[in-house]
Every structure is written in structure tokens, then in C-alpha cells.
Amino acid sequence: MNRSIKKKIARKLIEEFDLVCRHYFNQPLDEVINDLRVNCIVARAPQDPINLISDINKSGILFFSSDAAIVYLRKAFDRFDKGLFGLCISCGTEIPEDWLSKNPLTGYCSYCMLKVRTKGAEMEKPDSVYYS
17 is in which domain, residue-wise? Predict the structure, then answer.
């Protein structure tokens, strides 16, 4: 995945994180990041969404809950930080940009997602208030 696509997808993940911040912390993303910066957990300026994802992931802030929405976001941030984001966790193929743009938390390509849904297994993206 080239850097411009990675930045575009990173921005979508940050938007998802903003929704989590507003729902769970009753604060917008900027205030949460400022709190992390004051506590020396996030050191870099948040202009680069790729670095911001890495900082948020390392901060441990997404480990406060086992709520499905948080777990899926944490998994996506972890894959992103490890350089595995955009690769299907089932078959290993690259997930097309348009599929990631529509489903930024997914870990599956559209083919494997269909298989998961058909088998009735747990889906990578839960139905919740965040994804309606």
C-alpha cells in the first residue's frame, strides 16, 4: 500500500477513533490526544495520521474496554502499526482500497468476508451505533 493511500485510510481510522472518544470519553479526539500529550503518552504532533495511529496504539488507551467496537478498532490500529493493515487476515491478499475506504476496520477482503458471513462466524466489523 503506497503512502498516500495509507494516509487516506489512516484518516478514516482516526475518524472511527473520534467516534469512540465522543461515545466513551464524552470528549472529541483533540481533547483526548491533548490529555495523552500532557501525560507524556503521545509525544508527536498529530498532523501525520500514520504517526498518530502508532502513538495511540502504543498509549494503551484502546485496552480499557472489551466492548466489540473498541476491540475491532484496537485490532485495526494494531494491524496498521505492524504494517499488516490492508492485508486480509484470512487469505493474506491485499484488500482493495475501495473496500478499505468503505470498511476501515475490516481485516478481511470482500471474498473472505463473504465466507465469514456465510459460515455465520464472528464478523470483523460489528453492527453498532458506529457503523450505521
Answer: 3-131
0.90 exceeded by pTM: no
Return the closest-CA partner of residue 59 out of 106, 105, 89, 25.
Answer: 25
pLDDT tens for residues 90-119?
999 999 888 888 888 888 888 888 888 887
Residue 127 zone, left/alpha/beta (φ > 0; ψ -120 to 50; rest) = beta
Please give the tally of structural domains in the chain. Answer: 1
CATH number, position 83: 1.20.120
| DSSP codes joined into one string, the chain | --HHHHHHHHHHHHHHHHHHIIIIISS-HHHHHHHHHHTTS--S-TTSHHHHHHHHHHHTGGGS---HHHHHHHHHHHHHHHT-TTB-TTT-PBPPHHHHHH-TT--S-HHHHHHHHHHTPPPSS--SGGG-
